[in-house]
Amino acid sequence: MADLGWHQHRNALERLASSYASIPEGQQVRLSKRTTNLFRTRAATTVPGLDVGGLDGVIEVVPDGPDGPVAEVQGMCTYESLVDATLPHGLVPYVVPQLRTITLGGAVTGLGIESTSFRLGLPHESVLEMDVFTGGGQVITTRPGDALFDAFPNSYGSLGYATRLRIRLAPVPPFVDLHHVKFDDAELLAKTIGEIAATGEFDGQRVDGLDGVSFGPGEHVLTVAQWTDEPGPTSDYAGQDVFYRSLQARDRDRLTTYDYLWRWDTDWFWCSGAFGAQNPRIRRLWPRRLRRSDVYMRLLHLDRRFGIADRLDRRAGRPQRERVVQDVEVPIERLAQFLTWFEEEVGMRPVWLCPLVSTGTTDGARWPSYPLEPGRLYVNIGFWGTVHVGPDAPEAPRNRAIEAKVHELGGHKSLYSEAFYDRETFDSLYDTTNLAAVKRQFDPDDRLTDLYDKAVRSR
């Protein structure tokens, strides 16, 4: 992908400003986006959205600037487009979230994570500078240490929308060696994660990427990744084989760096199975180019719109489903405890495991809107699916129990999916007092929806 260029970026900002000006004063404003990776419903509205159609590209890649390798990227640019622009230079973002259509702005305002997060933190922690289109209709340039910048991660558009980000890039070779390490004990799994995070090594070898899957009690797999220049045969999990199944079937593997970055996207981790895409007969007929997370997301929206799964359940006499789609962070020392509780109380499997260490703000403090303790090792646990719970499903009993347990264990929950906290608990967890103060400064007429309304009241 060729660099977009600054002239086109300025034109796109003019279109954005014009669309803002066309919305009557006093009305709330929102993005006009065709795709999303959110699992929260959005309230129906007839209000026209902000025109961000021209803000989805890479402005330029600078392989050897004064700040080291960097990219100037528009806020609605997907990581797929960014990687296409940086990888020919042998560079990638510090953290590349798992799904192709996650945007740069989305990963910063909403949080992102991947297998490099145990050593490189979260996507916003490699942002050097950012332009934010605020509720007041201005583009504000902000940097780490500024009130707007520091409150932005986990604000989900309640403070504005990133239109440009300058991000650090890291060099990568063409291939990735994988070692799938099996564990039958969750305590030993947690101990090993801690040792790798502390030393950067496993079995005497450097570790560049680290994540894993818990398939159930006594069956956990930790995938240790090492970048390498050494050529050799590579696996293809964008074809007929399914990546997550390989973790159980093999001990060693090798992928191209490109395929490693998108290893989870082809089958939406394992959720493509809900659409039959892992059935060998269907998979052979399903075009390779359509085996992608955004395609499955569109199918999911169709299911929600027409209630297909619910109708089939009623016809078969099955209990009503509760949708349980969450990513949570728990401290490493509580990982085994959470997995045991989750198996007993929820019973969903498999679940994704991704260690992370936040670097914190420029003065070493917690990011106010998502206050992970800097330097402390957490494990992100991701689980996405449905559980048959019966007539109580609309009350979300499993989701509420998960929120309470994560809180009890000193963890935090991402807000890309539905949340059920009462206002007092939510305010304490996400420091909405600070959010409100920053919002008053940059959105004095309250034209952007506040975070609690977005995350909880939108249901």
Secondary structure layout:
Layout: H1 6-21, E1 31-32, E2 50-51, E3 58-65, E4 68-74, H2 79-86, E5 91-93, H3 104-110, H4 117-120, E6 127-133, E7 139-142, H5 147-151, E8 161-171, E9 175-183, H6 186-199, E10 201-202, E11 205-206, E12 209-216, E13 219-228, H7 243-249, E14 252-256, H8 257-261, H9 280-285, H10 293-306, H11 308-316, E15 321-331, H12 335-345, E16 351-357, E17 377-388, H13 397-408, E18 412-413, H14 423-430, H15 432-442, H16 451-457
Polypeptide structure, described:
With about 450 residues, this protein is an alpha+beta fold. Helix content is about 30%, strand content about 25%. The protein has helices at about 5-20, 80-85, 105-110, 115-120, 145-150, 185-200, 245-250, 255-260, 280-285, 295-305, 310-315, 335-345, 395-410, 425-430, 430-440, 450-455; strands at about 30, 50, 60-65, 70-75, 90-95, 125-135, 140, 160-170, 175-185, 200, 205, 210-215, 220-230, 250-255, 320-330, 350-355, 375-390, 410-415. The strands form 4 sheets. It has an 8-stranded antiparallel sheet, sandwiched between helices. Strands 3, 4, 5, 6, 7 and 8 form a 6-stranded antiparallel sheet that branches. Strands 1-2 form a two-stranded parallel sheet. The chain is globular and about 55 Å long. It starts with 5 loop residues before the first helix and ends with a helix.
